[in-house]
Amino acid sequence: MKQIYLIHEHHPRLLLFFAGWGADETPFKTYRPTDSDYMLCYDYRTLDFDASPLTEYTDIRVVGWSMGVWAATRVMARTPLSVSRRIAINGTPFPIDETCGIPPAIFQGTLDGLTDVSLHKFLRRMCADSAAFKAFLQRTPRRPLEELREELAAIAARYAALPPCEAVWDLGVVGTADRIIPPANQVQAWQKLGVPVCQTADAHYQEALFHRYLQDVWTND
């Protein structure tokens, strides 16, 4: 796992954001949460997480998006942090699951058929419409295709091998226009775990969601 500070000004509080599969800092580096440091986590070929830089913070808010919800669940289960709020966006702790995540056949099909063309189509499905997709293309992650294939395969192998762990989340945000992880599966996952759900009209990747839960994370309770 890669951990990158996007803001490191030694504030007493930290926004800790776990991005989705295939991500890097490119789509998320313009957000500036007020009076807060901001760390991005991505690349889940491993789940190694260095908590040592986080001991200086008295207040941490964790936001997970997409596959980052699963990664954050694993990290939080084994890492003592001073976390005040945990928000999951368009993802669940069950990333490959017939009723609570991405159906296994669809996940495997994405992995088996991953090419530049299929990735382009995947990114298009993440966005609400052609205008949003055109804007996203100006800030798509800059990672090699083979690396993304390795990451997807590692997620599948690790999810199958690891036992379930306690999923401690305060809110599950579900975009009803999500075409990556079925919204009904997301709702079912959070209901199964007893986590409150906030449903929005958003797509899987939606600027409005990130403005609210990254830019304004300290003021939108």
Automatic annotation (TrEMBL):
<protein>
    <submittedName>
        <fullName>Alpha/beta fold hydrolase</fullName>
    </submittedName>
</protein>
<dbReference type="InterPro" id="IPR029058">
    <property type="entry name" value="AB_hydrolase_fold"/>
</dbReference>
<dbReference type="InterPro" id="IPR007398">
    <property type="entry name" value="BioG"/>
</dbReference>
<dbReference type="GO" id="GO:0016787">
    <property type="term" value="F:hydrolase activity"/>
</dbReference>
<keyword id="KW-0378">Hydrolase</keyword>
<dbReference type="Pfam" id="PF04301">
    <property type="entry name" value="BioG"/>
</dbReference>
